[in-house]
Amino acid sequence: xxxxxxxxxxxxxxxxxxxxxxxxxxxxxxxxxxxxxxxxxxxxxxxxxxxxxxxxxxxxxxxxxxxxxxxxxxxxxxxxxxxxxxxxxxxxxxxxxxxxxxxxxxxxxxxxxxxxxxxxxxxxxxxxxxxxxxxxxxxxxxxxxxxxxxxxxxxxxxxxxxxxxxxxxxxxxxxxxxxxxxxxxxxxxxxxxxxxxxxxxxxxxxxxxxxxxxxxxxxxxxxxxxxxxxxxxxxxxxxxxxxxxxxxxxxxxxxxxxxxxxxxxxxxxxxxxxxxxxxxxxxxxxxxxxxxxxxxxxxxxxxxxxxxxxxxxxxxxxxxxxxxxxxxxxxxxxxxxxxxxxxxxxxxxxxxxxxxxxxxxxxxxxxxxxxxxxxxxxxxxxxxxxxxxxxxxxxxxxxxxxxxxxxxxxxxxxxxxxxxxxxxxxxxxxxxxxxxxxxxxxxxxxxxxxxxxxxxxxxxxxxxxxxxxxxxxxxxxxxxxxxxxxxxxxxxxxxxxxxxxxxxxxxxxxxxxxxxxxxxxxxxxxxxxxxxxxxxxxxxxxxxxxxxxxxxxxxxxxxxxxxxxxxxxxxxxxxxxxxxxxxxxxxxxxxxxxxxxxxxxxxxxxxxxxxxxxxxxxxx
Length: 620
Description:
Layout: H1 14-36, H2 64-67, E1 73-77, H3 79-82, H4 86-96, E2 101-103, H5 116-124, E3 127-132, H6 140-156, E4 159-160, E5 163-164, H7 169-174, H8 178-189, H9 192-206, E6 211-212, H10 213-217, H11 221-236, H12 250-261, E7 269-274, H13 281-292, E8 298-302, H14 305-311, H15 315-328, H16 338-349, E9 354-358, H17 364-370, E10 382-387, H18 390-402, E11 409-412, H19 419-430, H20 441-451, H21 455-465, H22 471-483, H23 487-497, H24 502-515, H25 521-529, H26 534-543, E12 548-549, E13 555-556, H27 559-570, H28 586-603, H29 607-619
Parallel strand pairs: 1-2, 1-3, 3-4, 3-5, 5-6, 7-10, 7-11, 8-9, 9-10
Antiparallel strand pairs: 12-13
Helix pairs in contact: 4-11, 5-6, 6-9, 14-15, 15-16, 19-20, 19-21, 20-22, 24-26, 24-27
């Protein structure tokens, strides 16, 4: 890093050598510092990661890097009063509930003002929680923080949830008791303007609705912590699930679900939402969940139960862990196997009023291993299940009847979107407005008609046409959609087809290609003869929302499911219809028949020659 001989020259005097050595050492350190980007060690972080356990987190100071992150809650407290007791308890519960919480334990600050980093943490928090204890007002740092909170509250609408730990709200508001004594000392040390700012801050916060330990929970700190955490969760909408902004036609579904969920009974309610893929079952469940979760301390929305249970390692066990974690608001519990999980869920649910959504369940066993029995829950608990397979809901209904809980179970099948809502939903994604521009109205109507009221398809098609102003391209894409369904839609719908057995798949493909709109009696003769057991097969297809049987006994299928079946057959051979198992287009069928006749003709010999030769041979 340096030239040989640079640190000392034999011709210099010893004093000059010493000076040169010192200068060289300084230069060398500076060079290494710049070259290797030496940094001072980071201070410990204030917040542990999201895997914080229910045990108390260690008391640490927030580093500059940690302060750069956006916090949701800022805790202000007098360390000597509550750091190792109530504040630690509250902090641990907040973090355990998934709330990004700032807690500064540094009692040895330097200077007269709070640091810019601390101000940033307060400003960027959504909620501030000052914990007023007897000696809170004796700390200038606590008062500086409080004044900053009030400034954010007044100017930016930041929420303040004051906790009056061992003092009365009136003492805080009017600076009485220990607060009066503290301010006598402050008036001797600080200027009048500063002291008045602190008094105004205490008066403002003291007038807010807060939590008084003695009055709220008779001095029980654990109960007060639970109340505060619940209020924070509601304010932050932490339990909410994401729903798209472009919702259309949801009011009717909400009304129906609300009617089913809230009847005269105060018992546990199980509501099943069933229907074909892409109908909007999950979206409906999310909207209802978001509306109800504010009324429930214990709630959980488990998405993609089928996918996770079947296609992820230890899928059901992980779902059980997730459920217990969210209900108890603790880190993921240790669950050995599914049976162990059932026992832990039963214990976790005991005596609790819960709101649970199990999304996309396709086997009753999944329900049993995640929710178990109605007797596990407190009255007024609500369980919502979405499924494509009505067999799951039928089994649930039978179970409720056996246990004498007939009123506990109800089901709901959403209807397809009407033309008006279909065009509106498509327009929201295609044009970012409620209706298409006038010059695209006819084209949009044609595109929407291909979806046949299925919300999934309308969203996909709207996104597909978004930002495309070329009408010729619209026309071409429309012609393509009429012959070849959208791949993203097919992928979603195919989920319902894959679990079918071979006989059920053959019946489904026959209906899609040949028998939609026909009396089921006719193909049933054929399917019977082929030993496909059609009555059982059709019943399964109906339960899985793949087929409907009309009042006139005709087989009906949604256009997108029909297109799915035909695309599956087309994949057998894209270029040669004659090599496929089924042909449904008249022109293709005619071509196949002509080709077959030509092939037969070329393989046959002349009938007259055969007869004559045979006759001659016989005569001989």
